[in-house]
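Try this one yourself first.
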């Protein structure tokens, strides 16, 4: 086939599969919450925002024994100033994954990799994933996060039109966000704070675009037809993206 299924479709299909697998999962499940906080200097002063996301890992026996995960949370949405473009840190990192951090950086669809959290806190993994998740859940205190380890960053020409999504270079915020917009601080931490909600008030099209790419298409193209908007879905901003009670 010349077209491949959208990442959003695959993730929603996975959620359906997870519902079937839960009945066959072992009793042991562990979760942790991470908090990504961003602060930037702007002409209007320092602007800050953060988001708390929960990642749950659980043992399964069907179709084979192993460990699966599910994500619950949303992207960081940072308002810079009235009339200015926002800065959004996605749940995912799909683009520009430096080779030297590919094994310990932000993951495709499960937030910061376990190895990254252990690196930031200066501790060693046990090799038993569920035990490591339990250990991460007990960690506390923010840790400075280098730009290489961030999820992908985006902004919008018009926040009411998802097709206007623009990739943001973390090394050059001013190129897309305007003059005198620079980093003040970036931190990541394990936390027990409540999972963040409310991004749908900032991006009101999220529910309407459930199961679609940001260009409105239901599939993610390859080759010349692929645009940046066609590379992202609502699942990069909120997951589960069809949740109606938040």
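Now uncover the answer:
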């Amino acid at each position: 086939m010349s077209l491949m299924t959208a990442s959003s479709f695959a993730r929603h299909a996975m959620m359906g599969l997870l519902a079937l697998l839960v009945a066959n999962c072992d009793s042991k499940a562990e979760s942790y919450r991470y908090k990504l906080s961003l602060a930037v200097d702007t002409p209007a002063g320092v602007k800050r925002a953060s988001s708390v996301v929960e990642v749950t890992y659980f043992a399964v026996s069907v179709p084979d024994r192993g460990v699966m995960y599910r994500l619950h949370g949303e992207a960081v949405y940072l308002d810079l100033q009235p009339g200015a473009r926002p800065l959004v840190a996605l749940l995912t990192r799909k683009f520009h994954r430096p080779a030297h951090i590919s094994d310990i950086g932000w993951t495709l669809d499960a937030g910061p990799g376990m190895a990254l959290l252990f690196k930031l806190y200066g501790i060693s993994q046990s090799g038993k994933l569920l035990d490591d998740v339990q250990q991460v859940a007990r960690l506390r205190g923010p840790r400075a996060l280098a730009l290489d380890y961030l999820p992908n960053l985006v902004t919008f020409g018009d926040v009411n039109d998802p097709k206007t999504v623009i990739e943001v270079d973390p090394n050059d915020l001013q190129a897309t966000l305007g003059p005198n917009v620079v980093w003040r601080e970036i931190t990541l931490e394990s936390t027990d704070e409540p999972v963040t909600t409310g991004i749908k008030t900032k991006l009101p099209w999220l529910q309407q675009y459930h199961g679609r790419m940001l260009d409105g298409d239901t599939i993610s193209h390859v080759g010349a037809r692929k645009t940046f908007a066609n590379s992202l879905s609502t699942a990069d901003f909120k997951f589960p993206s069809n949740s109606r009670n938040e």
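Discussion: DSSP finds five helices and twelve strands in the chain. The longest helix spans residues 7-22.
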